[in-house]
Design goal:
Blueprint (H helix, E strand, L loop, with lengths): L9 E5 L8 H11 L6 E5 L1 H10 L3 H10 L2 H5 L11 E3 L2 H11 L10 E8 L5 E4 L4 H8 L4 E3 L2 E3 L2 E5 L8 H6 L4 E5 L8 H4 L10 H14 L1 H6 L13 H23 L4 E3 L14 H13 L2 H9 L1
Helix pairs in contact: 1-12, 2-6
């Protein structure tokens, strides 16, 4: 009597990492080239965006769009919200773009299991968003504290899921994954300035400079009072975004190590992305290539995983 072998459900946990998250596109495309199509996709922050575009059938559209981005194009989507919004950027412009060009769906209507992670700002608890608008859920998962304004969903204020679960392996397993492939974008980030001088700390990307400049224009005279040295070209201390990015990197690195020690993935992909800054979204081609390489470096283990 023949027995039918159970086909293992593959989960893909896409981690947080801001502009480094374009690497997820390379990971997904490389997995597909090996015949690996995940059944369950869980994302945190930028991982929720790429994962969401994948499960809604818009990954190729996203891929083409981000490759066309230059720094000035990115700046168009920096909609300043002032101090009253809880962050510099409101995020409506970019979400409206996705809605117009890629559409929106409800998570419960998707052909694959999908969830994204956010953080309850009041309780500090992890929130797994498994229903409602894909775009609204992505926006909540990507609400990086200090940069993007928080999102109110079901009378709860939500911020970036990377605060509590940067690489959502646990979510994949809870949703039924037998095997989990995880992508950690921050594995080589902490201490990058000490190791190499690729991007000196006194230099910010054009997007970061423009964001600060627009913020200053909005608050006009108050900016000069509170930030008198903000626009000096010669500074010897870390800039605003460098401090923010480094602090978030340290936090997420420590949390990721702790979470994965207790619930390790079956395969961990760690693309080497330390040279890509917080808001360097125009370096998509480089990030995607690194993501592809990370997959092919462990091709043998991946094929063993799905054939086990």
């Amino acid at each position: 009597m023949k027995t039918h072998k159970h086909k293992a459900k593959i989960g893909l946990a896409l981690g947080s990492g801001s502009a480094r998250g374009w690497s997820h596109i390379g990971v997904i495309k490389a997995l597909h080239s090996l015949g690996i199509e995940p059944d369950i996709i869980c994302g945190t922050s930028i991982g929720s965006l790429v994962g969401g575009m994948y499960v809604t059938g818009n990954l190729d559209t996203l891929h083409k769009w981000i490759l066309s981005l230059d720094r000035r194009e990115i700046i168009k989507y920096l909609d300043i919200s002032l101090l009253t919004g809880g962050g510099f950027v409101e995020g409506k412009s970019i979400i409206n773009f996705f809605h117009q060009h890629m559409g929106d769906q409800n998570i419960e209507d998707l052909h694959k299991t999908y969830a994204c992670v956010a953080t309850n700002l009041d309780t500090g608890r992890e929130v797994w968003i498994q229903s409602g608008s894909v775009l609204e859920s992505i926006r909540a998962s990507m609400a990086l504290p200090g940069l993007f304004t928080p999102v109110n969903k079901d009378n709860t204020w939500l911020v970036d899921g990377g605060i509590v679960n940067p690489v959502p392996v646990s979510v994949c397993r809870a949703l039924g994954a037998d095997k989990v492939i995880a992508v950690n974008l921050n594995g080589d980030i902490v201490g990058k300035h000490a190791r190499e001088n690729i991007h000196p700390i006194e230099q910010s990307s054009l997007a970061e400079q423009t964001l600060i400049s627009r913020f200053a224009d909005k608050v006009k005279g108050k900016a000069n009072h509170y930030f008198p040295d903000l626009f000096e070209e010669e500074i010897n201390s870390p800039g605003l975004f460098d401090v923010m990015a480094s602090s978030i990197n340290i936090m997420q690195d420590r949390i990721t190590r702790s979470r994965m020690a207790g619930d390790p993935p079956d395969i961990l992909l760690s693309p080497k992305l330390s040279s890509i800054g917080l808001m360097e979204f125009d370096r998509a081609a480089e990030a995607i290539e690194v993501g592809e390489k990370a997959v092919f470096q462990v091709e043998h283990y991946l094929l063993d995983l799905i054939n086990d």
